[in-house]
Design a protein that fits this description.
The protein is mainly β. Helices cover 0% and strands 57% of the residues. The protein has two domains: 1-133, Immunoglobulin-like (Sandwich); 134-269, Immunoglobulin-like (Sandwich), CATH 2.60.40.2550.
Length: 269
């Protein structure tokens, strides 16, 4: 099925369906040219299992902080590739890459279509791109399916020399390891060792009745020298629910500090 869509207008045989079928997330990394590599991820919860040819796209337009389009701004189309197919539980992960401007806001319209039944699923989001060009800073915290050195073949999930595959829906089972990934930018370098020394602390908070309750003790990494940091943590005894992670970073050489944070959920097996 072909789809014609502008910001706010869809043309197809059927009316758009509920946005509750779509769970979106955006993760931000600094590119070499100073732009922000934005990984757009979309978990699609299908009405039934398998058998349909689903196609995804994101339409991105610069906007103000309320999501209103700016005069003269044009929408760009970001194709979303289905990363994992459509497994038996009726879920699939779509992803796309866009290079956006640091510190600006963008209105994003996610679209998933089903060519078999002419179904359209829509969801709107407002994406605020962080400032990552102003000295010591850190990328988004990515709840990850896996991460590590990039393979020889270029991967859609490649970020610099690394590859990070976001976790579909940011949901972990208790039998899994909680994998979190982030990158660090502009840490000072020791002339004697040609390495940086950054202290990193992960603090976890569980959402309980509208408030946050600290979960366990902070996890610390002292004197990290690399530009990327990955954490793999057992969560078998953690309560199920929604969580927030706050990562505090301290550059030992320059005394600069910064922070970043992310969100994820834990469910039963």
């Amino acid at each position: 099925m072909s789809l014609v869509l502008a910001m706010g207008i869809a043309t197809a045989a059927a009316a758009p369906k509920s946005a509750h079928n779509l769970n979106d997330a955006a993760f931000f990394f600094r590119a070499k040219d100073g732009s922000i590599l934005t990984l757009l991820t979309l978990e699609f919860v299908a009405a039934r299992d398998g058998g349909a040819a689903y196609v995804g796209a994101a339409f991105v337009k610069e906007a103000d902080r309320r999501g209103q389009g700016l005069p003269g701004a044009s929408a760009r189309t970001v194709p979303l590739e289905m990363a994992l197919g459509l497994p038996k539980q009726g879920k699939a992960l779509f992803f796309g890459r866009a290079y956006l401007h640091s510190g600006r806001s963008y209105a994003v319209r996610y679209v998933v279509t089903n060519g078999t039944d002419d179904e359209i699923f829509l969801k709107n989001a407002l994406v605020g791109v962080p400032y990552l060009n102003g000295g010591f800073s850190a990328s988004s915290v990515v709840p990850a399916e896996q991460f590590g050195p990039a393979k020889i073949d270029a991967s859609p999930f490649q970020v610099g020399s690394e590859e990070v595959i976001p976790k579909a829906g940011r949901v972990f089972r208790r039998s899994e390891l909680l994998r979190l990934y982030l990158q660090v930018y502009d840490a000072a370098v020791d002339p004697a060792t040609s390495q940086s020394r950054v202290d990193v602390e992960f603090r976890f908070y569980r959402k309980v009745k509208g408030s946050s309750k600290r979960q366990g003790k902070p996890v610390s990494v002292r004197g990290a020298a690399g530009a990327s940091i990955g954490l793999a943590l057992p969560i078998g005894d953690w309560p199920t629910g929604s969580y927030r992670v706050v990562v505090e970073l301290h550059d030992r050489l320059s005394a600069a500090r910064t922070s970043t944070e992310g969100a994820f959920s834990i469910v039963e097996d």
